[in-house]
Design a protein that fits this description.
- The chain is α+β, with helices and mostly antiparallel strands.
- The strands form three sheets. The protein has a seven-stranded mixed β-sheet, sandwiched between helices. Strands 13-12-11-10-14 form a five-stranded antiparallel β-sheet, with no helix packed on it.
- Strand 8 and strand 9 form a beta hairpin.
- Helix 6 crosses helix 10.
- The termini are far apart.
- The model has no long low-confidence stretch (mean pLDDT 90).
Length: 323
């Protein structure tokens, strides 16, 4: 635990983007100069580009904002509810899963960094500290799994609406729930369900938003990716503002889904749909299929017009790419 606290103190000291000497970092964190070097190396291993300048000390190439639970709650006002910010977790969704029976509905867990962040179909989600948003929200539903068709698509709409409200340009959705901007992935979503088919059940909704991608992160990403710093430049929103906006929209959106289901999001999804009318290549349980995107049905399944007619596919079955 002390090592984690020391790493956080060192990153906080570097957050301005200005150079800080090893001696100052050691005093700030209450450790030796040798320990500072080890903590800096650990931050680099996690994907943070901490540079060392002879005679000046250590620095980041740009300033960053550490997450602050009190600032986030202040932005949320009287409806702040349960919001936790951790320095490092295996994943925010795993933390909620461990405590799902004791936390209140709408509880939110954020982490500066994750050791085992994960995305759809078990893919790893790179999660260095201080750069992006890693957030999970707990939502209880009276209905069971059968009543939650289209939930992940609805969450995609909610995340896209959050980003648009923050002034992010060119936001769209790639089925089932990847958020894109400028032709590249900006945010990802993972929804995990626990409970009964007929109800009740619990959803843990995990969201990752790229605020700033380091070079190390880009090297590990196998698809085009973009971040808020690229899209918004000097006007990129503060991470605490992004977190607060996401929490507000997510809680409201999940409550709306509980009342209306996917029907309450279908028209907005259609407006943001990046696959409608596009030539697609599908691979999965059906083998390799080519066709044209034709939107989604009332349950959120992807509709594709092929040479043999229209088919509908579920997100668990298939990988979809533009041809």
């Amino acid at each position: 635990m002390k090592n984690l606290l020391h790493s956080r103190e060192i990153l906080a000291a570097l957050a301005s983007g200005e150079a800080v000497s090893g001696a100052d970092l050691a005093a700030r964190a209450g450790v030796t100069r040798a320990a500072v070097w080890k903590h800096v190396e650990a931050l680099r291993d996690k994907g943070l580009p901490v540079a060392a300048q002879a005679g000046a000390g250590y620095r980041l190439p740009w300033p960053l904002q550490l997450l602050d639970a009190e600032r986030i709650r202040a932005r949320l006002g009287r409806d702040a509810g349960r919001v936790e910010v951790h320095w490092e977790l295996d994943s925010t969704s795993s933390e909620l899963a461990r405590r799902r029976d004791t936390l209140p509905d709408g509880a939110v867990v954020l982490a500066e960094g994750q050791q085992s962040g994960r995305g759809r179909r078990g893919r790893a989600w790179l999660s260095p500290p201080g750069l992006n948003i890693y957030l999970s929200c707990l939502k209880r539903f009276e209905c069971g799994f059968a009543g939650l068709s289209g939930l992940s698509l609805a969450v995609g709409v909610v995340v896209a609406e959050t980003l648009v409200a923050l002034g992010v340009p060119g936001v769209g959705l790639k089925w089932p729930n990847d958020v894109y901007a400028d032709g590249a992935k900006l945010a990802g979503i993972l929804v995990e369900l626990n409970g009964e088919y007929q109800g009740p059940c619990t959803a843990i909704v995990g969201v990752g938003i790229n605020v700033r991608l380091s070079a190390a992160m880009r090297e590990g990403i196998t698809q085009p990716a973009v971040d808020l710093a690229q899209l918004c430049g000097a006007d990129a929103p503060d991470r605490n503002a992004v977190a607060a906006g996401l929490i507000m929209h997510l809680r409201d959106g999940l409550e709306r889904f509980a009342q209306q289901g996917f029907a309450g999001f279908a028209s907005t999804f259609a407006d943001l749909d990046l696959l409608r009318g596009k030539a697609l290549h599908l691979s999965g349980a059906r083998g390799e299929v080519d066709g044209t995107g034709a939107g989604v049905d009332a349950q959120g399944a992807l509709c594709v017009v092929t040479a043999d007619g229209e088919i509908r596919v579920d997100s668990a079955e298939v990988t979809v790419r533009l041809r």
